[in-house]
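Give me the fold.
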Amino acid sequence: VQLQASGGGLVQAGDSLRLSCAASGLPFNTYAMTWFRQAPGKGREFATTISMNTGYTDYADSVKGRFTISRDNAKNTVYLQMNSLKPEDTAVYYCAARIGGRSSFQSDYGYWGQGTLVTVSS
């Protein structure tokens, strides 16, 4: 199983960015997909999750209304559209996969991508 996250970079506050996470080696449409993030000097935290087939989503309060998670099961890829970025969104963003229902708990996830760095300057 491999999760390959990409799309990170350096942007200014107010800008948008789209992250991608391509999965291989697993039946993608049976896995819930989630983005976590880890800011410098802080622990990793939940950002958003999407169910395996129905597209139900959940968001952390800190990103609600600005971030949108989506998935394309035909391409085995999950996306994170980030709008109105703030300096406090600066973090390494990780995608994770778990079979079955979505969850916001890191311990529920067995597969993780390598992370992609997003830096938002003020």
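The first strand starts at residue 2 and ends at 6.
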